[in-house]
Each structure stands twice: as structure tokens, then as C-alpha cells.
């Protein structure tokens, strides 16, 4: 039982880190100029150019998606219990 709790804690921490990467790169991409202008101006966001931000955003998004699926698999009983409570008639 302790092992599953440790796995869930590690998973939650890694999910948080992946989320922060997705958030960070998403904000950078939102405020970035078009590809041509970014290249001409040598634009960067906290040291990352637009191409690097796009690659980091895609990679961290895939990692986060995989982690979310694992998280759901480990917690599906709790999820089902919450759904039953949500739709339970009073």
C-alpha cells in the first residue's frame, strides 16, 4: 500500500512539472511573433527561440497526456465513486 502511495505522489509531482512546462511554453508561443518575423528578429522567450518552444511544448504535452492516462488508471476507482456521488439522486 505504501508503494502505491509513493507512486501516486511521484506521478502527481511529475504531472505538475509537465503542466508547468506546457504552461510556460504555451505563454511563450502565444506572445511570439510569426515564424518569419521571429527568425528575422532573432526573437526568444527566456532564452528559447520559437522553434525550441514549439518542440518543448509538443514534447511536454505528449508526456503530460501519457501521465494523465497513468494517473487515471491508478485512480479510476476514486473517479467512479465521485461520478456516482455526483449523479446520485437526493
Main attributes?
single chain, 90 residues, mainly alpha
| Helical/strand content category | mainly alpha
Q: Main beta sheet: strand number and arrangement?
A: none
So how many helices? 4
List low-pLDDT spans. none
| Mean pLDDT across every amino acid position | 89
Rg, Å, rounded: 19 Å
In quaternary terms, these chains amount to single chain
End-to-end C-alpha gap: 34 Å
Please state the overall shape, judged from the principal axes of the Cα atoms. elongated
H-E order: HHHH
Structural domain count:
1
Taken as a percent bin, the fraction of beta residues is under 5%
As a percent range, the share of helical residues equals over 70%
Number of strands: 0
Structure characterization notes:
With 90 residues, this protein is mainly α. The protein has one domain. It has 4 helices and no strands. Helix 1 runs antiparallel to helix 3.
Quick gist of this model?
This protein is mainly α. Helices cover 81% and strands 0% of the residues. The mean pLDDT is 89.
Amino acid at each position: 500500500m505504501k508503494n502505491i502511495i509513493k507512486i501516486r505522489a511521484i506521478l502527481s509531482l511529475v504531472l505538475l512539472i509537465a503542466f508547468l512546462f506546457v504552461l510556460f511554453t504555451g505563454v511563450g508561443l502565444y506572445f511570439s511573433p510569426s515564424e518569419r518575423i521571429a527568425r528575422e528578429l532573432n526573437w526568444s522567450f527566456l532564452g528559447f527561440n520559437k522553434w525550441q518552444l514549439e518542440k518543448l511544448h509538443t514534447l511536454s504535452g505528449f508526456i503530460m497526456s501519457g501521465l494523465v492516462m497513468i494517473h487515471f488508471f491508478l485512480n479510476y476507482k476514486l473517479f467512479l465513486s465521485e461520478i456516482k456521488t455526483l449523479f446520485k439522486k437526493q
